[in-house]
Design a protein that fits this description.
The model has no long low-confidence stretch (mean pLDDT 89). The protein has a five-stranded mixed beta barrel. By secondary structure, the chain is of the alpha+beta class. The chain has three helices and five strands, in the order αααβββββ. The chain starts with a helix and ends in a 5-residue tail after the last strand.
Length: 141
Amino acid sequence: MEEDFLWAILGLALVIVELLTGTFYLLMLAIAAFGAALAAWLGQGIGVQAVVAAVIAGAGCYGVHVYRSRNAKEQMMPLDAGQPASFENWVDQSARLARVRYRGASWDALVDGDSSPDSDAMLYVVSTSGNTLKVTTRRPA
């Protein structure tokens, strides 16, 4: 099978996976694979193809990283931010890990700050990280 065809198939596969993830990093890798396919189609050797793919991938991923870090403040707030949760009990008070009742279920939560909430105290969700909520005792503005 021709090298340009293999690069193009790789690029197409990366585009399909990118459609499922939505991160744009895989899109940059797909564009890099298409660039290497073009280099192969123009008759360049595998070394040149690899360099073209690496340069395009590196520049593209760096560009996506810069764009995302510049626009991090403009992104939408998490839907859970500011929502109330009731304190249940401490799991590990020294690590600030507790259990809270949120949306009718018991969740792990990292309690922000130094305060020690009482049983059934109202806490407020700041953010989520996987299945762990980050909560605070102060109501967000």
